[in-house]
């Protein structure tokens, strides 16, 4: 482990290169074995987290938690959250927003609005320079880089610059046979 002085008496440590864990399928690397274990499920298709209400299974625990919200029913939601049947009278029940097209449900109205666009095919975010349209503002923001000279991700090994970090990672892997940590 390397060390560095921080403040007056505080010493911080960081992992060295020999502790870097690399994916055997792609350029992904991380200093944390738990992150690599989660990442490997992308390639192995392992889904160890199963829904107690249906046949659905997920690779990530958080994904399963979101899925469980699709099984609407206040008692079921409260029991999954650890609130005993009948609920704690001092804890107000959170409102569940249900999709009118499918069984998707969420606690967040903004998430439901974004989700409904899957069904309605609505693409409210439009590029002013080309016909590109998208369902989410973040996708439009990323798209706009294609019309500018701005490339915020420079390669440290050559003059290449990328619009997105994943494009830089692909470049480094392909042209320099190296890895960029995603931590």
TrEMBL record:
**Matches recorded under PROSITE patterns:** ZINC_FINGER_C2H2_2
Q: What is this protein called?
A: C2H2-type domain-containing protein
| One Pfam short name | zf-C2H2
Specify the superkingdom. Eukaryota
SUPFAM superfamilies for the chain: beta-beta-alpha zinc fingers (SSF57667)
- The reply to whether Repeat figures as a keyword in the UniProt entry is yes
Query: GO: which molecular function terms?
Result: zinc ion binding
The yes or no answer to whether the keyword Cell inner membrane is present is no
Which InterPro entries does its entry note?
A: Znf_C2H2_sf, Znf_C2H2_type
Q: Which UniProt keywords apply?
A: Metal-binding, Repeat, Zinc, Zinc-finger
Q: Which organism is it from?
A: Halocaridina rubra
Domain (C2H2-type) ranges: 21-48, 49-76, 97-124, 125-152
As given in the record, the signal peptide range reads none
């Amino acid at each position: 482990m390397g060390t560095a002085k921080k403040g007056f008496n505080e010493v911080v440590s960081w992992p060295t290169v020999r502790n870097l864990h690399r994916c055997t399928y792609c350029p992904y690397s991380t200093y944390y074995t738990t992150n690599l274990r989660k990442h490997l499920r992308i390639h192995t298709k392992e889904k160890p987290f199963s829904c107690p209400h249906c046949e659905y299974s997920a690779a990530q625990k958080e994904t399963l938690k979101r899925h469980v919200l699709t099984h609407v029913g206040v008692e079921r939601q409260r029991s999954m959250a650890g609130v005993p049947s009948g609920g704690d009278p001092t804890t107000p029940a959170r409102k569940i927003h249900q999709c009118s097209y499918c069984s998707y449900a969420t606690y967040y109205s903004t998430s439901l609005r974004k989700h409904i666009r899957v069904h309605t095919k609505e693409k409210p975010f439009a590029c002013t320079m080309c016909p590109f349209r998208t369902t989410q503002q973040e996708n439009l923001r990323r798209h706009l880089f294609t019309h500018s000279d701005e490339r915020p991700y420079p390669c440290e090994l050559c003059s290449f610059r990328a619009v997105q970090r994943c494009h830089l990672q692909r470049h480094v892997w392909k042209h320099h046979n190296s890895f960029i940590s995603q931590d």
